[in-house]
Amino acid sequence: MATIVMESIGRVFISLQQIRQLPRMLTQAAPSMPGTLRDTEVPFYFRERYVHYGYRPLDQNWRYYFLSMFQRHNETINVWTHLLAFLVFLVKFHQLSETVDFVSDSHSWPLLVLVLSSLTYSALSAAAHLLGGKSELCHFCFFFLDYVGVAQYQYGSAVVHYYFAVEEGLHQRVSGIFLPIAALLSCLSCLGCCYGKYCNHSLPPWVRKVCQVVPSTLAYVWDSSPVAWRLWAWSSNDPAVVYHFGQVAFFLSCAFFFTFPVLERLLPGRCDFLGHSHQLFHVLLSCCTWCQIHGSYLDYVGRREVYQRLHRGWEAAFAVGLYVVTFGGCAAIAAVMLQKVKLVLHPQSKSK
């Protein structure tokens, strides 16, 4: 027994030693990490309002941008907030898979769509903030993918709200049209975000916000209407209502910070690394998603008699199929907009 204990202690000691050597290993892997730049030293596409410092230099090798997640710059917190959110959602997925039969129970497929769309948007967002600084083309490419992730998450939200949270009165009004309209609004949201980004070089910043916020607002109002109806008919015996209220509160808060850069506007140059509004947007959106996943799971467990009565057997498969179509449509929109970006960045190719 003493030998086993000593071996365990030895392994722990070796692990601690390896952890202590991690900073030195990173330094050896990237011995000459370039310093960050001021906003005036990078192209206009990369500049964020009221953020003056912490921009990474362009045209470095890919290793630099991957390792920059351990460097202090103005995208570090944006990367880690959604990277950690991705890990949290992955753990939640593992927990759900222990009690939910995602393979055989077709009624669980809308919940699966939500979890997969949550993992996708958080992963694409982290990738965009981590790798979008390599070049102008990479900047547009990765952030267009980020917008695809947001749009398909909007549709994933619509699916679980319609399938699990909807009340019978609203279901009678929107049955047959809710999911197709949600898919259309998701594609319009992706188009608006990509177009706003594309026009960011030639139009005022508020135009970009309008292109992003208006379609996303329409999508949110439609996608969340079953939850709003549910909250209106609030019941103290409904444990999921608390989480639905939480997701609405978190979403409205994150929408505020996305639309209005309050903190960096009040303290220009002081929130470049920590504290600017987009970081709060990431944190609040992640909290919104977690509440949404857990609330939908409670609905899946507690309202089975309701949604089995309201939805026909093929609707879950239809929702999954429409998710794939929506994802593909948003990816096609991003690809078309990327071609337009290439013509702006390389105008000589237009004449070929």
User: In percent terms, what proportion of residues is strand?
Assistant: under 5%
Distance between the termini: 77 Å
Number of distinct beta strands: 2
Regions with pLDDT < 50 over 5+ consecutive residues? 12-16
Subcellular location: Membrane
InterPro entries: AdipoR/HlyIII-related (IPR004254)
Main location: membrane
GO molecular function, one term: steroid binding
Could you explain the architecture of this structure?
With about 350 residues, the chain is mainly α. Helix content is about 70%, strand content about 0%. It contains 15 helices and two strands. It has a two-stranded antiparallel sheet with strand order 1-2. Helix 4 packs parallel to helix 13 (about 275-300) and helix 6 packs antiparallel against helix 15. The longest helix has about 30 residues, at about 315-345. The protein starts with a helix and ends in a 7-residue tail after the last helix. The model is unreliable at about 10-15 (pLDDT under 50). InterPro entries: AdipoR/HlyIII-related. Keywords: Membrane, Metal-binding, Transmembrane, Transmembrane helix, Zinc. Belongs to the ADIPOR family. It is a multi-pass membrane protein. Pfam families: HlyIII.
Topology:
Layout: H1 2-20, H2 22-29, E1 37-38, E2 53-55, H3 62-67, H4 76-97, H5 109-131, H6 136-165, H7 168-174, H8 178-198, H9 205-223, H10 225-232, H11 240-259, H12 262-266, H13 277-302, H14 304-310, H15 315-345
Antiparallel strand pairs: 1-2
Helix pairs in contact: 4-5, 4-13, 5-6, 5-13, 6-8, 6-9, 6-13, 6-15, 8-9, 8-15, 11-13
